[in-house]
Predict the structure.
Amino acid sequence: MAEGIDPILRMAAQLARLPGIGQKSAQRLAYHIAAMPLDDVKELAAALWQGRKALRFCALCGNYAEDEFCPVCKDEGRHNGQICVVRDARDVAAMERMRDYRGLYHVLGGALSPMNGIGPEDIRIKELLARLSTETVEEVILATNPDIEGEATAAYIARLIKPLGVRVTRIAHGVPVGSDLEYADEVTLAKAMEGRREL
Amino acid sequence: MAEGIDPILRMAAQLARLPGIGQKSAQRLAYHIAAMPLDDVKELAAALWQGRKALRFCALCGNYAEDEFCPVCKDEGRHNGQICVVRDARDVAAMERMRDYRGLYHVLGGALSPMNGIGPEDIRIKELLARLSTETVEEVILATNPDIEGEATAAYIARLIKPLGVRVTRIAHGVPVGSDLEYADEVTLAKAMEGRREL
């Protein structure tokens, strides 16, 4: 018996694999779920599994999508000549929370990191360049994380794009340096967008 | 769009209903799950749903069980004349982590609380008395929580059982007063068991 019976142990083991949930919280959550009405647990499990299964990547920008294109790319009003380049799809959600930005996105799916063997061909830079030749783009806003890898990625992309005559900007360091874009509050993100400068 | 696309919002909404998971962590978890391999999410959802579905209550002690009886009650070697009375099934897991106790349990499923309209007929006291007349019981160890309701419940049960000539003990206050039994560490719980006193 020891830590509980099998179904509860299996719940706790799975929950403990999630970020920020230690063994003790996983166990507490498992016992909470054990005491939840059957229908509520069904709803929880279905939301996770059906939700994950429903997710795909937008064929244009790489953001999470339910169909071929994400809600941003599907919105004709947002094809305004601006493309905001971010590392992850979750960064799109962070930018959207600001509610100020009305252009499109491009999700790189990572950042350049020679230390970890991640080069330009491992992130969606080629796809970004393709968009610049097929779409009418006036400005590329580089909103990669304000950390070493994010800065390096922004600098690399800026060098590639500037010769094409497209305006390239970098979000201002209103975003606290060394942090994660995902955690920035709306005001800080709005400040960072306002203060963006030519590269 | 705002906070994310529907499947992710639904995941986050469900996760935010769990104890200790706020809106922000729920959203972070949802994005983590969105990025997890499909099979891993399937395993997580299945562990929660199948796990919850597999749970029933032991016909003897009220602990969580997969069959008619829980692993403790099924173990012949543990029918040693001791019954440890706890509030919740999760408290059984806490006691079992101590690995010292070799008797049986009785889960009350609550604590007496006149304020909340919970009386003796609302928790499994009748079932405990029934066990005393059908099983050979030498000692009832009252391990309800060391808070007001737990103490009241212990005192109430002690008054009922002592006339029957059964030894009734209460775990010592090695368990920090005002806390939750579930959070006690193994050593504290062992001390509490050692120092139990006659009521």
Summary: Chain A is about 45% helix and 10% strand. Helices of chain A lie at 6-15, 23-34, 38-54, 71-74, 89-98, 125-134, 148-161, 186-194. The mean pLDDT of chain A is 89.
